[in-house]
Amino acid sequence: MQYRRLGSTDLYVSVLGFGASPLGDVFGTTDQDEGARAVQLAIDEGINFFDVSPYYGLTLAEERLGKALEGRREQVILATKCGRYGIDRFDFSAARVRQSVEESLRRLRTDHVDLLQAHDVEFGDAEQVIHETIPAMRRLQEEGKTRFVGITGYPLKVLMRIASAIPVDSILSYCRYDLLIEDLDSVLMPFAERHGIGVFNASPLHMGVLTERGAPDWHPAPPTIHEAARKAVSFCREHGSDLSELALRFCLEYPRVASTLVGMSKTSHVRRNLRNLGETDRELLREVKAILEPVSNLVWPSGRPENQDEATAQGA
């Protein structure tokens, strides 16, 4: 396992991160005991970054992860979030931030997290996040409830706007660097590197698009993306390969982010992901990228209109 420094912090995170949302039955019912075994195996194999949120499974993911980490909490870098509590439930107020963290710490069975993140900030008022949410998170940092503070979201513009106005230690975005899109590299990374901010790349499979099974019904990407992905899946299958493995290797090789987060809830998930810590088949990658080129760098609307990226309309 390789480790990279998270921005200007003293945290060194595994290049493969454990996304804990599946522990909350977000992608279908999971077995709690098998989920715990997956967490234990991940730690044994050197995965040290675990990311969760009270939103995932409406607190279920935090509860299960907390139980699975008992006795091994000090071996991991633990991140959770605040601000989002349901599909349409957001509260970025200082009072709710404090309440949320206290609740998360109880569920996670710890007295602190290593990273506290404001969750999906594009659904909130950016001015409130700047002047109320992050200052409240910094007060919790001063109290020892979190070591560092970050923000997460899909649109890159609002993430950079917030981080320009008030210092943050990390930024997490998803579906912005993978086989279908690379604007995290051209837009966010230069900004983050100038400001010493660590970056997490989440959803390397484009939230299920780049898999044999395909994306869930709720996926917000336009139909053209799903169609192109199905062609890429078929091409890989015909050549004795798996598109999801190619997609994961492509992201894990990307050196500018601190960690790539992958959802896991089974030991088989952990083993499969670990196998993909290797070199990408360059010829296969070139051919798959050519198949996906007509729909590359398309994005969808997310959050308040004023927080969306300008390119959104092109892909919706």
Outline of the structure:
The chain has 316 residues and is α/β, with parallel strands linked by helices. It has one domain: NADP-dependent oxidoreductase domain (TIM Barrel, Alpha-Beta Barrel).
Task: Summarize the structure in words.
The protein has a single domain (3-212, 244-281), classed as TIM Barrel (Alpha-Beta Barrel). Helix content is 40%, strand content 16%. The protein has helices at residues 32-44, 60-68, 94-108, 126-142, 156-165, 183-195, 223-238, 243-252, 267-275, 282-292, 312-315; strands at residues 3-5, 12-14, 16-19, 49-51, 77-82, 84-86, 89-90, 113-118, 146-152, 170-174, 198-202, 259-263. The protein has an eight-stranded parallel beta barrel, surrounded by five helices. A two-stranded antiparallel sheet has the order 1-2. A two-stranded antiparallel ribbon has the order 6-7. Helix 4 links the parallel strand 8 (113-118) and strand 9. Helix 1 (32-44) crosses helix 2 (60-68), helix 1 (32-44) packs parallel to helix 9 (267-275) and helix 3 crosses helix 4 (126-142). It starts with a strand and ends with a helix.
Residue share in helices?
40-55%
CATH superfamily membership, which one? NADP-dependent oxidoreductase domain
Apparent shape: globular
Low-confidence stretches: 312-316
- CATH class (first level) name: Alpha Beta
Number of helices: 11
Rounded average pLDDT: 95
CATH topology category name:
TIM Barrel
Which class of secondary structure composition applies to the elements? alpha/beta
* Radius of gyration from CA coordinates: 18 Å
Helices and strands, in N-to-C order? Answer: EEEHEHEEEHEHEHEHEHHEHHH
In CATH, the architecture is: Alpha-Beta Barrel
How many domains make up the 3D coordinates? 1
**DSSP strand content:** 15-25%
> In total, how many beta strands?
12
**N→C terminal distance:** 38 Å
> Could you give the order of strands across the largest sheet?
3-4-5-8-9-10-11-12
The biggest beta sheet reads: 8 strands, parallel, barrel
